[in-house]
User: Fold this.
Amino acid sequence: MPDRSSQGTIVLHGTKLSGHAHRVELLLRMLGLPYQYRDSPASVRATPEFRALNPFGQIPVLQDGGLVLADSNAILVYLAKRYDTGGEWLPEEPVVAAQVQRWLSVAAGDVRFGPSLARAVTLWGFPGNAADGRRVADALLRFMEGHLAERVFLAAEHPTVADLACCSYVAHAPEGGISLAAYPAVRAWLQRIEALPGFEPMPRSPVPAAA
Ligand SMILES: N[C@@H](CCC(=O)N[C@@H](CS)C(=O)NCC(=O)O)C(=O)O
Assistant:
């Protein structure tokens, strides 16, 4: 791993119930990188200081030395390229690299507008329609179930940033009223991720009766 001694502390701005921040924290932990966590609820995100870090006002944001980087998937790519000298988390091999990118896109699209949206609307009254989120989640989970029926991880024979990008909101889909009961391969994949060294779950929130 590259020497970090001259760079100071890595700082992660997030909240503990954000799956976007959780995926970044998982990689920091799994790479064994020391970091400082700055809790950044809406009141903090509205400040000029935070807006200077990310004009979108969104978490996560990572600071590493002089670098300020927003967007969870961009941060995963940075951390893997910068600190994973083995190249396992973000392989260079063209087909695997493309598969990883494909799942990062799924994380930013179907995961964000599926289980993540349904959860945010259900738990916090986030603007949007939970039923739309559930529809997107159903299609996503059916696709993931078929994909994972023949694979252990999403993009390679081993875990990559693709798995971390997708796992948090899928694991917490029941909090948005989406049951995982019909998706045994997805549940087995989640268990494999939870068994990885450094894994720490996102805190659970109440599950509505329907899920
Ligand atoms: N594309 C961004 C999305 C991050 C995101 O949606 N963060 C949410 C919390 S989970 C947030 O900060 N929302 C506040 C807002 O949009 O004002 C990423 O992947 O980091």
Notes: Residues 10-83 form a domain with the Glutaredoxin fold (CATH 3.40.30.10). The radius of gyration is 17 Å.
